[in-house]
Amino acid sequence: MRSLLKLVFVFVTGFALFPNLAKADEVFRLVSQQSGKCISLLAADQSDGGRLVMRDCKNFPDFFITSKGGRVTPLHFELNSARFICIFSTETPTLATPRDKVEVRNCGSLVSSLWNLRGDLAGVITIEKLKGLDSTSHCMRENDQTGEIELDLCQNVSAQQWTRERLTLPPTD
Q: From CA 11, how far away is CA 42, in angstroms rounded?
């Protein structure tokens, strides 16, 4: 019962904090400190359940990540003014190999899409997956062999270090 109440609280809080994804405060590319490449959608027309990959940074929407700012936030790609795809991973990551993948899905449930941006938001950060609002101690990492994004124990190594390259986009309305 307690975990159900906590889940309801997180769900309501999520919608109170992020009622309209179209009003995102920040637009940026996530650049890996390990390779200098950016997180990208596998395909620009990607929707539910797709993969993320590392590519040379470009000025296309499939590289543009948006958030509501702050440290605890959903992360999503704004493909146009009405279409958002959320960055997602399991709420119960494991240490098993292969590691849990970080993917995208439709932004229907913000609860399972919350991330904690740890570190200096203007500098190098690590991105921790949250379970509700609780820490999982699992962070996004670049797999330099496959080019995929995975979860691993947070260790503050170069494969888990990212910079947010801020972008300014023209108004869409």
A: 29
CB 17 within 8 A of CB 68: yes
Number of domains in the chain: 1
The per-residue pLDDT for range 29-53, each reduced to its tens digit, is 999 999 999 999 887 777 666 889 9
- 155-to-12, 125, 167 alpha-carbon distances in Å: 32, 12, 28
What domain range is 138 assigned to? 2-166
Does the N-terminal peptide bond of residue 171 adopt cis geometry, omega within 30 degrees of 0?
Answer: no
Question: Does residue 171 sit within a domain?
Answer: no
**What pLDDT, in 10s, does the model give residues 49-78?**
688 999 999 988 888 898 877 889 889 887
107-117, pLDDT tens digit by residue?
765 555 789 99
With 0-12 / 13-18 / 19 or more C-beta atoms within 10 angstroms meaning exposed / middle / buried, residue 140 is buried
